[in-house]
Give the backbone structure.
Amino acid sequence: MTQGTATPPGEHHTREVEAVRDTGRVANGGTGILTTSTEAMAPEVARRTWPRWVALGVAMIAVAVAAVLWEDAGARLLLGVLGLFLVVRGGLLLRGARSGAVDADLAGRARGLGAAAVGWGAAALVVALASQSLAAVVLLVTVPVLLLAAGAALLTRGGMARRGGLVLVVWAVLVTGLLVATGVGQSWARAADVATVVAALAVAVLAVPVLVGASGLRAAAARPVPARTVPAACAGCACGAGGCGA
């Protein structure tokens, strides 16, 4: 008879539980990337997230107001804050892709988006630090392009998103016409100032859905955490006290 080392009771189940717990946070908690609705976010995750969303929304409005009032450096402020946000967000995406907590397909997309965000954000920071006039020219060019691109992207969807995209495209065309008319009729420096105001207005408008989402997250955080039930098949199992729950 061949003798071997016996596996202690419950050790096999414990290993399986540890593997499941490694990815449990991905399945049970939304991060804004993996979930499409604030209502679907787990209450414990919503409690940590909604104050951040409130802070982000308030900060966006504050930056927009400061950019309009600060004539000598409003464009630099807007471009610098946008660049910093992209760098930080891209870094978080890259870290999440390397963590192994998501599948290969999602990790690949997060890695690509993260690298692009870091690259564009770093470029925006460099321009913002270089000069006010250069930052204003960048806004003059990018504001109409970004508005048209965002509107076109929304037009590919259905329902309210499509109607919002149509409104955004019309607004982008009007803004483009206003900038061109200002540049030709007055000066391109004046047109750059108008583009800075339009960009600040766009940032303030984008803060509204962020604050609305924070309100939804706060409501989700107020929901009681559902009690975890252990199936009868797990009775007496080593993992039944808080493991896989399968």
